[in-house]
Amino acid sequence: MKKVMQCLILGGSVLLLCGCASWPSTPGYVEVVDQQKIELIEKWARTNNTQVIWITAPVRKVRAAGT
Asked: Would the pTM count as exceeding 0.70?
């Protein structure tokens, strides 16, 4: 019984970790940093005397070259 419980816990952990994995991006597209959005937000922050600290830069999908 103990072995069955260990297997169930291990299997559940594996499924949980797989659910957190990122999905592959759309074929023919790549993700690039969205400089336009960054500039817009930084400009707003300067005019409102606020500081932006980027943890994760915004990205957007664009067609890959040669597709």
From this structure: no
